[in-house]
Design a protein that fits this description.
mainly alpha; single chain; about 0% strand; 8 helices; about 200 residues
Length: about 200
């Protein structure tokens, strides 16, 4: 069926460029093409016409050429995909080692690193003592790296803020808190007013 559609579009494109100029000739050309298209074997109907040998040969040749081109392109794409996958094989193995851990194993590791082994046991996400120790060690290393990067940022922040007067800073904080409390009181007053206006049910 796909071959028939491809052949039909190919012939119609050729016919549109150099084909007959009137509708009767175009209809005859399409009928000849349809008759020349390969079909599934079926019992010949009484009075059915035979397709001309010349049209059948031309159609078969066009379909064969199209098949050859399509399969050649498919082989080329497959070859390119193999080359791309071979180039990124190292990356894939690194990703594959990381993704082999199941969600239950990740949950068990989370519970172990956050001091919730009993919760993990209750939920069925248990981990061995050696794996728990390894996970705790990895988590502490990550925490240390994170703390060191935060310390670098905090140091630069403290040097900039050391120039400010601490009393001015505390006054600014108190004033800001007072403004926030005042805004909260106003909101709750509006809520109370709406509640009192509403009809009682």
């Amino acid at each position: 069926m796909v071959r028939l559609l491809v052949a039909l579009s190919l012939v119609s494109a050729v016919a549109a460029n150099a084909g007959p100029k009137n509708y009767a000739d175009e209809a005859d050309a399409v009928r000849n093409m349809m008759e020349a298209a390969p079909r599934a074997p079926e019992a010949p109907a009484a009075g059915a016409r035979r397709k001309p040998a010349l049209v059948a040969a031309a159609s078969t040749t066009a379909v064969w050429a199209l098949d050859t081109e399509l399969f050649g392109n498919a082989d080329r794409v497959e070859r390119e995909l193999r080359e791309m996958s071979a180039a990124s094989a190292g990356k894939q193995t690194a990703l594959a080692t990381k993704s082999t851990e199941t969600s239950q194993q990740r949950a068990a590791r989370f519970f172990a690193t956050h001091g919730m082994l009993s919760v993990g046991k209750l939920l069925g996400a248990e981990i061995s003592a050696s794996e728990a120790a390894k996970a705790a060690k990895e988590a502490s290393e990550v925490q240390q790296r994170l703390a060191s990067s935060i310390n670098l940022r905090a140091t630069s922040f403290h040097t900039a803020s050391a120039r400010q007067d601490d009393s001015n800073l505390s006054n600014d904080i108190d004033m800001e808190e007072e403004k926030e409390e005042q805004a909260q009181r106003q909101l709750w007053k509006m809520v109370d007013n709406l509640r009192h206006r509403a009809p009682r049910v």
